[in-house]
Amino acid sequence: MYDYLLPEFLVERREDSCIRCRVCERQCANNVHLYDTELDRFFLSEKDCVGCQRCVELCPTGALYVHPRLADYRPNSSWTRDKMQNLKKQAATGGVVLTGSGNDKPYRVYWDHLLLNASQVTNPSIDPLREPMEMQTFLGRKPDTLKIEFSEGKAKLASEMCPNVPVQIPLVFSAMSLGAISYPAFKSLAMAAKETGVLFNTGEGGLPVEMRDEYADCAIVQCASGRFGVDLDYLNSARIIEIKIGQGAKPGIGGHLPGEKVSDYIAQTRMIPRGTDALSPAPQHDIYSIEDLSMLIYALKEATNYTKPVSVKIAAVHNVAAIASGIVRAGADIVAIDGIRGGTGAAPLATRDNVGIPLELALASVDKRLRDEGIRNKCSVMAAGGIRSSADAIKAIALGADGVYIGTAALVAMGCTLCHKCYTGKCNWGICTQNPYLTKRLNPELTSQRLINLLKGWSHEIQEMLGGLGVNAIESLRGNHEHLRGVGLEEWELNVLGVKGAGE
Amino acid sequence: MGRIKAKPEVCMGCHLCEVWCAVAHSKSKHIIKAFLYEEDKPLPRLLVEEKLPLTFALQCRHCAEPDCVTACISGALWKDPESGRVIHDPNQCVGCYSCVLTCPYGNIFINHRKREIIKCDLCAGLDTLYCVSHCPNEALVYEDC
Fold first, then answer.
1. A66, A367, B51, B103: which has the fewest C-beta neighbours closer than 10 Å?
2. Shortest CA distance to A101 belongs to which of A431, A397, A438, A390?
3. B67 and B109 assigned to the same domain
């Protein structure tokens, strides 16, 4: 059926610079540029352009411009262009409007309304280039008290310690499964995590057997509702096991990896037949209560002989604080909270844009609730969903997180331009696709280096800001709301965040 | 002597190596000027082989025992014992294309306008190997051997 959709992007070619090398044509999986050898000119199929900028960035002469097309319906604040386009799309297909990546709606980004402190006169700031700055943190349950016994003049720790996993920088790559992202992208994350002493998260696509020797030591493995790729060796090879209850981009719904993406390799890793849809149910069908969750947590702990911390990842939703409290009491060692701006490979647009709450508010309320109940030490809190910079990360830690998950930022470092077309499987950047012609565009040696550079850069910036605060260890900042002040926020927002207004 | 090695597993088939090879062997060495304004259309001296999804760039292997040198009837091709490069002298070339026929890699090309052959000279006289340094994905690497 004819869809009556306006093209989203305008592609302009500067004829005085175009040398007809046809790089744009070859790089576009959407076939926007078509060269006609007879006429020695390009024809455009602008309707198919997703604005990923691949052709623009690869054009050797800078002859291409791709920008949002101005042609629009009559301006209307309520019936905006994207609302109308979606209606037309649905009228033509009768389906659910899909999207990828994270929420792009203008909900308040609280990070941009929080400001950090710095030391002046009354306490000295620290220069991280001259003085030690501890960036290491430990993920896992901490004991309620520390009992130390002295015998023969030697001190000995008497309290029983739960398994804790050190991370050299409190930044961890978010769960992105092999299948959702390409093998080179997946491997790049693993390589970068290994090199920098942080962790990567396998998502629920399993961990390929041949990667386990080298990379399992820096892997968080997921056990999600589809239970794809879960076996005893998978669980035992990892550092942390994560039970995925929800995802910030699509709280309350499951996942669907289309059969055409399930190649031999992915089928083997996920332990499902080749070419079959990998469907992750919305709930975990053995978890309908906190008690059920507890059973799974302890089943996983039993399976790994209590040597691994077990994390539970939930989407930030309305009563997230109470849920997090229940999760900790159920025996989780880590609670991961994924906010509304978290990314996804595919989600219904309606869900992605309208379900869940911002991470900042969820994080602050979870941290407060756990403190009030005296159980904050029993778990580490991971913040995920829309962490865009080192400043966001350090603010998240000051708001109460032990560590921060970075997903979209890592993808952008690899090349992603947030065109939101992950669900089409035609990622021109070779990230969110299984097409072998496209996945080759990522060279793990290069992309892992980009990720390492990103982590290194963020780490330096965090150290500078910590030094400015007069703090010499990242763990000393955790949950220290005194280092934050809000600007342009309302009273209730300041209350939920637990921060004072600027100047107070 | 070193040689350029292709890495098909990360070659994305963009053909930028061909574009920059042509620029490297143009008069102006300026990409737009070379392609749009120079009288002699710049020609690449390497070829991206394609059988999708497989792609890789191939240029003169500078063979240890080059068939092209044996086949050359005019002494225009020879192997330089010092650098190991197979060198072509257009002044001696008679354009018989015997080398084109014998090259097992199909890596000697014809400049039809000038009726002479062109081949990879490992960017002789230039600062860098253009195909290697301009590959966005490092799918071409120069290796000493």
1. B51
2. A431
3. yes
Partner A contacted by B125 (CB < 8 A):
no
Contact A17 B32 (CB under 8 A): yes
Domain match, A347 and A206 both: yes
pLDDT for the residue numbered A210: 94
Whether the predicted pLDDT of A2 surpasses 90:
no
B-chain residue closest to A441, CA distance: B12
Tally of domains in chain B: 2
With 0-12 / 13-18 / 19 or more C-beta atoms within 10 angstroms meaning exposed / middle / buried, residue A447 is buried
pLDDT band at B144 (very low <50, low <70, confident <90, very high): confident
CATH code for position A191: 3.20.20.70
Spatial CA neighbour of A140 closest among A156, A164, A174, A116: A164
Question: Domain check: are A61 and A207 in the same one?
Answer: no
Q: Using an 8 Å Cβ cutoff, are A337 and A348 in contact?
A: no
User: What pLDDT is recorded for position B40?
Assistant: 87
pLDDT at res. B2: 79
Give the type of residue at B111.
Answer: N
Picking from A21, A24, A31, A188 by the largest number of B CB atoms within 10 A of its own CB, the best residue to mutate is A21
| Average pLDDT score over chain A | 96
Task: Mark whether B45 and B10 lie in a shared domain.
Answer: yes
Mean pLDDT of B69-93: 94
A441–B11 CB contact, under 8 Å: no
pLDDT surpasses 80 at A133: yes
Same-domain check for residues A316 and A192: yes
Chain B residues with CB-CB distance to A441 below 8 A? 12, 137
Q: Assess whether pLDDT exceeds 80 at residue B62.
A: yes
Chain B residue numbers touching A23 (CB-CB < 8 A): 14-16, 19
Per the structure, the complete domain to which residue A57 belongs is given by 9-95
CATH number at B47 reads 3.30.70.20
Q: Mean pLDDT across the stretch A205-221?
A: 96
Q: Are residues B16 and B69 in the same domain?
A: no
Domain span at B35: 1-60+127-145
**Separation between Cα atoms, residue A382 and residue A400, nearest integer Å:** 9
Residues A207, A64: one domain? Answer: no
Strand pairing class (A98-99; A347-348): antiparallel
Q: Could you give the number of structural domains in chain A?
A: 2
Kindly determine whether residue A23 and residue B137, on different chains, have CB atoms separated by under 8 Å.
Answer: no
A407 and A285 within one domain = yes
b/e per residue, A196-231, with b = 16+ CB within 10 A?
bebbbbbbbbbbbeebbeebbebbbbbbbbbbbbbe
In-domain check, residue A324: yes
